[in-house]
Design goal:
418 residues, 5% strand, disordered N terminus, ABC transporter involved in vitamin B12 uptake, BtuC, three-stranded mixed beta sheet, two-stranded antiparallel sheet, mainly alpha, single chain
């Protein structure tokens, strides 16, 4: 009887997640080679290092590139189907996805050019609020508090940055005010999620609606009546590092940009080191995994959760400042357009780690930048579909690429001391 059951169970063990992903990659590779290769117009796809078409470039025939990279995606999928083990699964999955994207780009860029510096810079800029929002989620959920209110913290941060930045005629005052706005939403989340046994997902959604309502009301009653006095903040300055800014591609992206980019990238490193190398990180992970055991050894579970949620709120609020101090020069109702939920997806896609969240945020930022570029060059793909790209990428990443990842064991569970 036991042998028969084992034989029945064997096919399910063989048909595991890597092999299913391998099938998906093979299908995508076939689509890329056959469809993208056939549709690619005559001419070379030029990926320029400079900002204009005449500069140095990496050039490849559009049809050849689309077919070649499609074949590479098929090969990566075949490797997963063959049952490679360990880290090679991740490597092949990454190679297959990148190859599919490059095949698509060869089709779209054939006869045109894609400026790599502008694309990289735009990707980082669009990913900026997602990086900060995902980091806020990492700190909160590693402490055991689900932060669905990132969208509300973005909105309050954007509103506070515009209002105070205009009144004080200072972008720095606006940035500080954005962090305070995020803390206000985080404080309500902390009280309701930590002090009371309330469903944290429901609380987060309610706080998002509250932030949308409050900022929308104040926008109509205050900002619209006198935009010059209340809704024309100064922009964060661009800082250029002499010498380093002249490095090809990376120089203009990392060393000729606004201070919020440096803040976000340094914060990723700081949170990573903090969680893995410091007493605060050890206690935070203990509180998120097993609060009862943490309480037994003298860690103040609720106190640490309060502190971490407020710190996370300040980070998310600073991410909201991007919308009014970097991307635009004024506040608009619901201007974050669901970025907080994409940041939450980046947190999950990044497996609740700072560097994972950074990579996921850059992935979503690239999808958004690519949609903007393709619309500008007159892509044959309908504009409605292009605008859907960031959200489609979010769904695919979370549903198909994350796999079996485990959130902190006590994530979303209020701690009641026995």
């Amino acid at each position: 009887m036991t042998t028969a059951l084992a034989e029945i169970a064997a096919p399910s063990r063989f048909w595991n997640r890597p092999r299913r992903l391998g099938v998906a990659l093979v299908v995508l590779g076939i689509v890329a080679a056959a469809v993208f290769g056939a549709l690619a117009p005559a001419g070379n796809a030029r990926f320029t290092i400079s900002q204009n078409e005449s500069g140095a470039a990496i050039s490849i025939n559009g049809q050849v590139g689309a077919i070649l990279f499609g074949v590479i995606a098929i090969g990566a999928g075949a490797g997963l189907l063959a049952g490679v083990a360990g880290r090679w699964q991740t490597v092949l999955l990454g190679v297959g996805i990148v190859a599919f994207v490059l095949s698509f780009l060869c089709w779209q860029v054939a006869g045109k050019f894609l400026p790599l510096v502008d694309t990289a810079s735009g990707t980082l800029q669009l990913a900026l609020p997602l990086i900060l929002g995902a980091l806020a989620g990492v700190i909160g959920e590693r402490s055991g508090v689900v932060n669905v209110a990132i969208e509300g913290q973005f909105l309050m941060g954007a509103f506070g940055a515009a209002l105070v930045g205009t009144i004080a005629a200072s972008a720095w005052a606006g940035l500080v005010s954005a962090a305070v706005g995020g803390v206000l939403i985080a404080a309500m989340l902390a009280v309701l999620a930590i002090r009371f046994p309330v469903d944290q997902v429901v609380v987060g959604i309610v706080l998002n609606l509250l932030a949308a309502g409050v900022t929308g009301f104040l926008y109509e009653r205050v900002m619209q009546t006198d935009a010059e006095s209340f809704n024309q903040p100064r922009q964060l300055p661009i800082w250029r590092v002499p010498g380093l800014a002249d490095i090809p591609v990376l120089g203009p992206v990392l060393f000729n940009t606004n201070v919020l980019v440096w803040f976000a990238l340094l914060l990723v490193l700081a949170v990573h080191l903090g969680l893995s190398r410091t007493r605060w990180g050890l206690r935070t992970r203990a509180v998120g995994e097993h609060p009862t055991a943490a309480d037994t050894v003298g860690i103040r579970v609720r106190g640490l959760r309060y502190v971490n949620v407020l710190v996370a709120g300040a980070i998310a609020g600073a991410g909201g400042a991007y919308f009014t101090l970097v991307a635009t020069a004024s506040f608009q109702k619901n201007m974050t357009s669901g970025a907080g939920f994409i940041a939450l997806a980046a947190l999950i896609f990044g497996r609740w780690t700072p560097f994972g969240a950074l990579g996921a945020a850059l992935f979503f930022g690239f999808a958004q930048k690519l949609a903007t570029y393709l619309s500008a060059v007159g892509s044959p793909v309908p504009s409605q579909f292009l605008n859907m790209l960031p959200y489609i990428a979010t769904i695919i990443a979370v549903a198909g690429l994350v796999g079996r990842v485990r959130a902190p064991a006590a994530d979303g569970q209020p701690y009641v001391k026995s």
